[in-house]
Amino acid sequence: MFKVQISGRLDGKPRLKRVAIYGDSVALVEIYEFDKDNSYVRCAIWGKKASRFFYEVNEEKDIFIEGSGLNKQLRNINGLNNYVFTVNCENYQILT
Question: Which of 24, 36, 31 has the alpha carbon at shortest distance from 67?
């Protein structure tokens, strides 16, 4: 697990979901930074912070996130490995 700090712009409005297994809410967002590769990072915000984030933030906001990152290996239908990096947000700050 990695400790990460990222900043960038939200790619669309956050999605808020209820996770029945954990009895908690999660807000899912993607943050991007325009560079030559147009980098995207998936972020998950859990619990009460998720609801607050969902109603407080709309699309096209600059944001700073601190949290822990996890790189997961997934196998696609062709049998090739793909890697997905997701940040579990511990703190966030809206910059604009």
Answer: 31
How far from 11 is each of 19, 68, 76, CA to CA, in Å? Answer: 22, 20, 24
- The beta strands (E) that lie in 1-96 are given as 2-10, 15-19, 24-33, 39-46, 62-75, 81-94
The token pair at 11 is: 């790619």
At residue 79, what are phi and psi to the nearest 5 degrees? 85, 5
Each residue's pLDDT tens digit, 5-36: 998 888 888 899 988 777 789 999 988 876 66
Within 10 Å of residue 67's Cβ, how many Cβ atoms?
Answer: 20
d(Cα 55, Cα 32) in Å, to the nearest integer?
A: 20
Tokens of 77: 């239908």
